[in-house]
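[Discussion] Sanity-checking designs against the backbone

I'm trying to build intuition for which residues belong where. Below is a structure token string of 223 positions. I'd appreciate it if someone posts a full sequence so I can compare it with mine line by line.
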């Protein structure tokens, strides 16, 4: 896919969401990243189904829903019904042996199926599941909170993931999430990421649209 920024609403002002979404759309963003946290898989609780339902009805954006919840199988249908377009689950959150089936289930519902790995999980894990994934999401911070620093090993992990996907599933979108800003995005892009999830460096700024444009320019340095 064309390399692009996916703004993450975790860092948005929820009292005034609409103009912020219009701002990133006007700047060319078409994919909105939505972080769902359950207070168990990660030590934080964020947003869920009602917000996704209204975003699906009104935002006009592709909803890239990142489930940071234990045993996500329990909620896959509910998120699909709420209007998620992409649904990403964590390798570490799925009970042993259930991941391949779960990714297939997500695809069978007509959604793109994503697999995410935490910074401590070996990238080689992706090899086993690459063929069942439409998105591979490399976390470059420990999941749970925005505005954390980019993993020092982030670029090399992205490079390793790129090599695996080129070999096993070149159509799979390689996405990076955590600590993406104007300093880190070029490195992640050079390493082979295509989708750059950015929360605080977009919605933490006074003009989210201008922030998307600035980040996008840094991606294009490579191309
Ligand atoms: C963290 C979330 C991220 C978060 C990134 O657990 O998965 O999507 O919004 O925030 P920043 O871009 O501020 O690191
Ligand atoms: Zn996320």
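Best answer:
Here's mine. Compare freely.
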């Amino acid at each position: 896919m064309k390399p692009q920024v996916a703004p993450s609403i975790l860092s948005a002002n929820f009292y005034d969401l609409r103009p912020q979404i219009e701002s990133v759309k006007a700047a060319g963003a078409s994919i909105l990243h939505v972080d769902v946290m359950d207070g168990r898989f990660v030590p934080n609780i964020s947003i869920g189904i009602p917000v996704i339902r209204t975003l699906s009805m009104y935002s006009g954006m592709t909803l890239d829903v990142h489930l940071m919840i234990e045993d996500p199988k329990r909620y896959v249908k509910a998120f699909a019904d709420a209007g998620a377009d992409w649904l990403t689950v964590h390798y570490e959150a799925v009970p042993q042996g259930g991941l391949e089936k779960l990714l297939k289930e997500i695809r069978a519902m007509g959604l793109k199926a994503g697999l995410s790995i935490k910074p401590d999980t070996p990238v080689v894990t992706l090899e086993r599941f690459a063929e069942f994934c439409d998105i591979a999401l490399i976390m470059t911070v420990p999941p749970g909170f925005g505005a954390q620093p980019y993993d020092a090993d982030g670029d090399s992990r992205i490079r390793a993931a790129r090599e695996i996907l080129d070999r096993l599933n070149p159509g799979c979108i390689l996405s990076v999430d955590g600590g993406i800003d104007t300093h880190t995005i070029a490195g992640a892009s050079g390493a082979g990421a295509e989708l750059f999830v950015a929360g605080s460096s977009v919605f933490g700024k006074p003009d989210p649209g201008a922030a998307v444009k600035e980040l996008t320019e840094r991606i294009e340095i490579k191309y």
